[in-house]
Amino acid sequence: MKVTYYPGCSLEGTAIDYAASIGAVAGLLGLTLEELEDWNCCGATAAHSVNHQLSLALPARNLALAESAGRDVVVPCALCFNRLKAADKALKGPEGERLGLAYKGGLKIWDLLDYLTQEPFLSALAPKVVRPLADLKAVCYYGCLVARPPAVTDKADFENPRNMERLLQVLGAHPLDWSYKTDCCGAGLAVARPDLIDTLVQRLYERALRAGAECFVVSCQMCQANLDLPQERISKKFGRDYYLPVLYFTELIGLALGHPEVEKWLRGHLVDPLPLLRRKGLVE
Amino acid sequence: MLDQSIASPALPERLAAALPVSVSACFQCKKCSSGCPLTFAMDLLPDRVIRLVLLGQEEQLLRCRTIWVCSSCETCTTRCPNGIDIAGTMDWLKEEALKRGFASQPGVARFHQTFLDTVRLSGGRLSEPLLLGLYQLKSGETLKKIKSGAIWGELRLGWQLARRGRLLPQLPRRLKGAREINEIFAQAKKRE
Lengths: 284, 192
Prior knowledge:
The complex is a heterodimer. Chain A is α/β, with parallel strands linked by helices.
C-alpha cells in the first residue's frame, strides 16, 4: 500500500527520532510512505495567529502538489494535519477563488495515528507481536489538534478518542482511563511563555500519576517535546521528582514487534524510558 | 471598562466577513470559558471577549492579554453550541492588534513573526535552530537571562538536544519551489 507522506519541518529536526520510528513501523506493516516532493512548511500556529493569508497559502501549495500525486495524504504532526485540513476546507469555498488556486479538493488527509489504527492494520499487527508490552501502565495523550475542531478534522470521537488505547491493547500494554487525554499542553507557547507550560504540563503529570500511569503515549511530536523536555525544570519548580517517560505510539509498535532499532529512537528522549522498560523486562 | 463613546459598532460586521458564523449567535452560556485551559493566565474570559466584540469595545480587545495567551487548542470553538469560531476570533483580533501596534504580549507576537520570517529565510521549511537563535536575538532579553542565570538552563537544553542529533545547526536545503514560496510571502505582505 502506498500513501503520500507529509512529514513536516520538525520531523527533519527535533523529532528525527519520531521520523525514524515511523519509517521503521511503516516497513513492518508493508506501508510505503512516498514523501511529498518539495513540500513546504504549513505555517503552523504562527501563520494562523498573525497572518491569515499565509495560513492558507502555505498549506495550499502542499495540497496542490499532493493532488497531482493523487494518493491519500498521511501526516504525523498534529499541527500540520490540522493546518492542511483547515486549508483543504477553506479552499473549497470562496477563499479558494480569492486565492486563485487550482486545487479541486479531492484529497483525503489522515493523521498518522488514525491511519495506522484502521482495523486491517490492527488485525495485521496482532500476530506480529513478539514481545507483548505486558504490565506497561500508560495513559494515552492525544493533545488538541488531531481531534479539534471536528468541523476541520472530521473526527467523530473528538472529546474521547480511543484508537490509541485500542492499539495499546493489541500490543499487550495496559492503557489507563483518565480525563485529560485531549487537554492542551500549550506547546505553541513553550518558547515565549514557558511559565504557562509549567502550570499546564504539571497538571497533566499529576493527573497521569493519579491514574496510575508509568508513562505517556503520544502521537504528536509537539506534545512529546512539551511533556519530555521540561520535566526536570517542572520537577524542580514543584519540588516533586517526576519520572514519566513520553513514548511515541510508533516506538511501542516497534518495541512489541521486536524492531532492532528501538533503543536508538528511545535514546533521543530527555526523560530516559530505558529504566522503566528494563524494569518491565521489555529491553535488555 | 465599558465605554459607549468609543464603541466601534462595525466590529461585529467586520469580524462576520472573516468567520462563518456571526458572534451575534452567542447566548452567553459560557461553555467556552468553562472548558478553556488557559483562563488562569487571562485578563478577559473567552465569553467576555465575544461579548465585547458585540459591544464594539475594540481597543479593550486589541490591548488584552487573553488573545495572546490563548493556545489555539480549539476547545472553545469545538464546544460552542452556536458554532461560533471563538479561537478564530482570537486569531482575527491578534492579527488586527499587530497591524495597529497593540500587542500586549510582545514575546508571543515576536515568536510568531520570527517563526514566519525563519520559514521565509530558510527557503520554505522551518529551521528550528535558526528560529531559536533569531528569537533570542530579537527578544532583547539575553542580558537579563544571563544575569538571572536562566540562560544556562536554555543552553543546557539546547546542548542535550544537539547531543542527541535533534538540534543540528544546518539550514534546510533550498526547495525547488523557492521562488513560488517567496511569491507567497510577498503576496501576504502586500495584503497586510
